Amino acid sequence: MIAFEKWHGLGNDFVVIDARDVPLPVDAPLARAVADRRTGVGCDQLILLERSSLADVRMRVFNADGSEVGACGNASRCVAAKLGRAAVIETGGGLLRTAVDGSDVTVDMGVPRFTWDRIPLAYPLDTERLPVAWDDLVDCAAVNVGNPHVVFFVPDVDAVDLARLGPLIERDPLFPERVNVNVASIEDGGLALRVWERGAGLTLACGTGACATAVAAIRRRLAASPVRVNLPGGELHVAWEAGGAVRMTGPATFVFAGRFDSAALAGGGAAGL
Asked: Which domain of life is it from (predicted)?
Protein backbone atom coordinates (compact mmCIF):
# COMPACT_ATOMS: atom_id res chain seq x y z
CA MET A 1 0.00 0.00 0.00
CA ILE A 2 1.44 3.35 -1.08
CA ALA A 3 0.73 6.43 1.04
CA PHE A 4 -0.13 9.65 -0.81
CA GLU A 5 -1.57 13.11 -0.30
CA LYS A 6 -3.96 14.89 -2.63
CA TRP A 7 -3.21 18.60 -3.22
CA HIS A 8 -4.32 21.22 -5.70
CA GLY A 9 -3.25 24.67 -6.85
CA LEU A 10 -6.32 26.52 -8.14
CA GLY A 11 -7.87 23.23 -9.21
CA ASN A 12 -4.75 21.87 -10.91
CA ASP A 13 -4.64 18.68 -8.83
CA PHE A 14 -1.86 16.34 -7.79
CA VAL A 15 -1.26 13.02 -6.12
CA VAL A 16 1.90 13.61 -4.06
CA ILE A 17 3.95 10.57 -3.01
CA ASP A 18 6.80 11.13 -0.53
CA ALA A 19 9.47 8.58 -1.45
CA ARG A 20 12.36 10.22 0.40
CA ASP A 21 12.59 7.44 3.00
CA VAL A 22 11.29 4.49 0.96
CA PRO A 23 12.20 4.81 -2.74
CA LEU A 24 9.38 4.04 -5.16
CA PRO A 25 9.93 3.15 -8.82
CA VAL A 26 7.38 5.04 -10.92
CA ASP A 27 6.93 4.38 -14.63
CA ALA A 28 4.44 5.62 -17.21
CA PRO A 29 1.86 2.81 -16.68
CA LEU A 30 1.75 3.40 -12.90
CA ALA A 31 1.47 7.17 -13.37
CA ARG A 32 -1.42 6.72 -15.81
CA ALA A 33 -3.15 4.27 -13.46
CA VAL A 34 -2.90 6.61 -10.45
CA ALA A 35 -4.06 9.61 -12.51
CA ASP A 36 -7.13 7.83 -13.91
CA ARG A 37 -10.21 9.54 -12.46
CA ARG A 38 -12.43 6.44 -12.74
CA THR A 39 -10.23 3.55 -11.64
CA GLY A 40 -7.33 5.32 -9.88
CA VAL A 41 -6.96 8.18 -7.42
CA GLY A 42 -7.40 10.85 -10.10
CA CYS A 43 -5.16 13.83 -10.81
CA ASP A 44 -3.61 16.02 -13.49
CA GLN A 45 -0.10 15.06 -12.37
CA LEU A 46 1.57 12.51 -10.12
CA ILE A 47 4.29 14.16 -8.01
CA LEU A 48 7.10 11.98 -6.67
CA LEU A 49 9.32 13.42 -3.93
CA GLU A 50 12.84 12.00 -3.62
CA ARG A 51 16.01 12.81 -1.73
CA SER A 52 18.26 15.43 -3.34
CA SER A 53 21.97 16.18 -2.98
CA LEU A 54 21.39 19.68 -4.40
CA ALA A 55 18.25 20.89 -2.62
CA ASP A 56 15.81 20.17 0.20
CA VAL A 57 13.89 17.74 -1.99
CA ARG A 58 13.75 16.47 -5.55
CA MET A 59 10.38 16.72 -7.32
CA ARG A 60 9.54 14.54 -10.31
CA VAL A 61 6.41 15.34 -12.32
CA PHE A 62 4.43 12.73 -14.28
CA ASN A 63 1.53 13.90 -16.44
CA ALA A 64 -1.76 12.04 -16.61
CA ASP A 65 -0.61 10.41 -19.87
CA GLY A 66 2.45 8.99 -18.10
CA SER A 67 5.01 11.36 -19.62
CA GLU A 68 7.57 12.94 -17.28
CA VAL A 69 8.17 16.71 -17.54
CA GLY A 70 10.70 19.12 -16.11
CA ALA A 71 8.75 21.44 -13.82
CA CYS A 72 5.30 22.39 -12.58
CA GLY A 73 4.62 25.73 -10.92
CA ASN A 74 1.41 24.76 -9.14
CA ALA A 75 2.96 21.50 -7.88
CA SER A 76 5.98 23.43 -6.60
CA ARG A 77 3.70 25.56 -4.45
CA CYS A 78 1.98 22.44 -3.10
CA VAL A 79 5.30 20.78 -2.27
CA ALA A 80 6.49 23.91 -0.42
CA ALA A 81 3.19 24.04 1.48
CA LYS A 82 3.55 20.34 2.36
CA LEU A 83 7.07 21.00 3.72
CA GLY A 84 5.66 24.00 5.61
CA ARG A 85 8.68 26.23 5.14
CA ALA A 86 10.88 27.98 2.62
CA ALA A 87 12.63 25.34 0.57
CA VAL A 88 14.72 24.72 -2.53
CA ILE A 89 13.19 22.13 -4.85
CA GLU A 90 15.24 20.24 -7.45
CA THR A 91 13.31 19.67 -10.69
CA GLY A 92 14.14 18.56 -14.20
CA GLY A 93 13.81 22.23 -15.17
CA GLY A 94 16.29 23.47 -12.56
CA LEU A 95 16.30 24.51 -8.89
CA LEU A 96 13.16 26.33 -7.67
CA ARG A 97 13.28 28.46 -4.52
CA THR A 98 10.05 28.82 -2.56
CA ALA A 99 8.73 30.93 0.31
CA VAL A 100 5.59 30.24 2.35
CA ASP A 101 3.37 33.04 3.68
CA GLY A 102 0.19 31.68 5.23
CA SER A 103 -1.89 30.06 2.50
CA ASP A 104 0.17 31.65 -0.27
CA VAL A 105 3.43 30.32 -1.67
CA THR A 106 5.90 32.22 -3.86
CA VAL A 107 8.10 30.27 -6.27
CA ASP A 108 11.20 31.63 -7.98
CA MET A 109 10.80 29.93 -11.36
CA GLY A 110 14.23 30.98 -12.64
CA VAL A 111 15.16 33.03 -15.69
CA PRO A 112 12.92 32.42 -18.74
CA ARG A 113 14.53 31.16 -21.92
CA PHE A 114 13.71 32.58 -25.35
CA THR A 115 16.17 31.19 -27.91
CA TRP A 116 14.73 28.71 -30.39
CA ASP A 117 16.98 25.85 -29.26
CA ARG A 118 16.06 26.34 -25.58
CA ILE A 119 12.27 26.18 -26.16
CA PRO A 120 13.05 23.92 -28.11
CA LEU A 121 11.86 24.38 -31.70
CA ALA A 122 12.72 22.10 -34.60
CA TYR A 123 14.50 24.93 -36.44
CA PRO A 124 15.47 28.61 -35.89
CA LEU A 125 12.58 31.11 -35.70
CA ASP A 126 11.85 34.44 -34.01
CA THR A 127 10.38 33.20 -30.72
CA GLU A 128 8.80 36.55 -29.82
CA ARG A 129 6.50 36.29 -32.85
CA LEU A 130 6.49 32.85 -34.42
CA PRO A 131 5.45 33.07 -38.11
CA VAL A 132 3.03 30.14 -37.79
CA ALA A 133 -0.74 29.79 -37.47
CA TRP A 134 -3.43 27.29 -36.56
CA ASP A 135 -6.84 28.51 -37.77
CA ASP A 136 -7.23 32.01 -36.24
CA LEU A 137 -4.44 31.47 -33.71
CA VAL A 138 -1.51 33.46 -35.08
CA ASP A 139 1.53 35.49 -33.99
CA CYS A 140 2.36 33.44 -30.89
CA ALA A 141 5.30 33.89 -28.53
CA ALA A 142 7.42 30.94 -27.35
CA VAL A 143 8.87 30.87 -23.83
CA ASN A 144 10.51 28.15 -21.74
CA VAL A 145 10.04 28.47 -17.97
CA GLY A 146 11.13 24.94 -17.11
CA ASN A 147 8.61 23.67 -19.67
CA PRO A 148 8.05 24.81 -23.27
CA HIS A 149 5.09 27.13 -23.89
CA VAL A 150 3.50 29.03 -26.76
CA VAL A 151 1.26 32.01 -25.97
CA PHE A 152 -1.47 33.44 -28.19
CA PHE A 153 -3.09 36.79 -27.36
CA VAL A 154 -6.72 36.75 -28.50
CA PRO A 155 -9.78 39.01 -28.06
CA ASP A 156 -11.77 36.37 -26.14
CA VAL A 157 -10.20 33.27 -24.56
CA ASP A 158 -13.57 31.54 -24.31
CA ALA A 159 -14.15 31.83 -28.07
CA VAL A 160 -11.11 29.63 -28.83
CA ASP A 161 -11.79 25.92 -29.37
CA LEU A 162 -8.81 24.94 -27.27
CA ALA A 163 -10.03 21.37 -26.82
CA ARG A 164 -9.60 20.90 -30.58
CA LEU A 165 -6.60 23.12 -31.32
CA GLY A 166 -4.62 22.34 -28.16
CA PRO A 167 -3.65 18.77 -29.07
CA LEU A 168 -2.88 19.76 -32.68
CA ILE A 169 -0.45 22.46 -31.57
CA GLU A 170 0.98 20.39 -28.71
CA ARG A 171 2.09 17.67 -31.13
CA ASP A 172 3.04 19.82 -34.12
CA PRO A 173 6.45 18.76 -35.56
CA LEU A 174 7.69 22.31 -34.85
CA PHE A 175 7.91 21.27 -31.17
CA PRO A 176 10.16 18.19 -30.79
CA GLU A 177 9.38 17.89 -27.05
CA ARG A 178 5.70 18.87 -27.53
CA VAL A 179 4.47 22.17 -26.09
CA ASN A 180 1.98 23.73 -23.67
CA VAL A 181 -0.60 25.96 -25.37
CA ASN A 182 -1.82 29.21 -23.77
CA VAL A 183 -4.53 31.59 -25.00
CA ALA A 184 -4.80 34.91 -23.18
CA SER A 185 -6.79 38.14 -23.29
CA ILE A 186 -6.07 41.52 -21.72
CA GLU A 187 -8.66 42.41 -19.09
CA ASP A 188 -8.81 45.11 -16.39
CA GLY A 189 -5.06 45.54 -16.21
CA GLY A 190 -4.49 41.78 -15.95
CA LEU A 191 -4.74 38.67 -18.10
CA ALA A 192 -7.44 36.06 -18.61
CA LEU A 193 -5.82 32.72 -19.44
CA ARG A 194 -6.79 29.23 -20.55
CA VAL A 195 -4.22 26.46 -20.96
CA TRP A 196 -3.95 23.19 -22.84
CA GLU A 197 -1.28 21.43 -20.82
CA ARG A 198 1.15 19.08 -22.53
CA GLY A 199 0.30 15.54 -21.47
CA ALA A 200 -2.68 16.58 -19.31
CA GLY A 201 -5.08 18.49 -21.57
CA LEU A 202 -7.37 21.33 -20.50
CA THR A 203 -6.63 22.31 -16.92
CA LEU A 204 -8.14 24.71 -14.40
CA ALA A 205 -4.74 26.29 -13.78
CA CYS A 206 -1.14 26.03 -14.96
CA GLY A 207 1.59 27.79 -13.00
CA THR A 208 4.27 27.65 -15.67
CA GLY A 209 1.64 28.72 -18.22
CA ALA A 210 0.77 31.77 -16.12
CA CYS A 211 4.48 32.62 -15.88
CA ALA A 212 5.13 32.17 -19.61
CA THR A 213 2.06 34.23 -20.53
CA ALA A 214 2.90 37.05 -18.13
CA VAL A 215 6.46 37.18 -19.47
CA ALA A 216 5.21 37.27 -23.08
CA ALA A 217 2.74 40.05 -22.22
CA ILE A 218 5.43 42.13 -20.50
CA ARG A 219 7.81 41.69 -23.45
CA ARG A 220 5.09 42.95 -25.80
CA ARG A 221 4.21 45.81 -23.44
CA LEU A 222 0.69 44.48 -23.03
CA ALA A 223 1.08 44.33 -19.25
CA ALA A 224 3.38 45.59 -16.50
CA SER A 225 4.93 43.61 -13.66
CA PRO A 226 3.48 42.30 -11.41
CA VAL A 227 0.77 40.76 -13.58
CA ARG A 228 -2.52 39.39 -12.27
CA VAL A 229 -3.38 36.21 -14.19
CA ASN A 230 -6.96 34.93 -13.98
CA LEU A 231 -7.39 31.23 -14.76
CA PRO A 232 -10.58 29.15 -14.61
CA GLY A 233 -9.46 27.90 -11.19
CA GLY A 234 -8.49 31.26 -9.70
CA GLU A 235 -5.83 33.95 -9.62
CA LEU A 236 -2.03 33.96 -9.69
CA HIS A 237 0.38 36.90 -9.49
CA VAL A 238 3.53 36.90 -11.61
CA ALA A 239 6.44 39.33 -11.32
CA TRP A 240 9.27 39.61 -13.86
CA GLU A 241 11.84 42.16 -14.97
CA ALA A 242 13.86 41.66 -18.16
CA GLY A 243 16.98 39.62 -17.46
CA GLY A 244 15.71 38.42 -14.09
CA ALA A 245 13.88 35.46 -12.65
CA VAL A 246 10.12 34.95 -12.74
CA ARG A 247 8.34 34.93 -9.37
CA MET A 248 4.88 33.39 -9.08
CA THR A 249 2.59 33.70 -6.05
CA GLY A 250 -0.62 31.80 -5.35
CA PRO A 251 -2.38 29.36 -3.02
CA ALA A 252 -1.77 25.66 -2.39
CA THR A 253 -4.49 23.48 -0.88
CA PHE A 254 -4.30 20.13 0.92
CA VAL A 255 -7.35 17.93 0.15
CA PHE A 256 -6.91 14.52 1.79
CA ALA A 257 -4.48 11.69 2.49
CA GLY A 258 -4.86 8.01 1.66
CA ARG A 259 -3.23 4.82 0.43
CA PHE A 260 -3.55 2.86 -2.79
CA ASP A 261 -2.68 -0.67 -3.76
CA SER A 262 -0.06 -0.35 -6.48
CA ALA A 263 -0.48 -4.01 -7.51
CA ALA A 264 -4.22 -3.57 -7.97
CA LEU A 265 -3.71 -0.44 -10.04
CA ALA A 266 -1.01 -2.03 -12.17
CA GLY A 267 -3.31 -4.98 -12.81
CA GLY A 268 -6.27 -2.78 -13.72
CA GLY A 269 -8.11 -3.37 -10.44
CA ALA A 270 -9.69 -0.79 -8.15
CA ALA A 271 -7.51 1.33 -5.91
CA GLY A 272 -7.74 0.63 -2.22
CA LEU A 273 -8.12 4.03 -0.52
From this structure: Bacteria
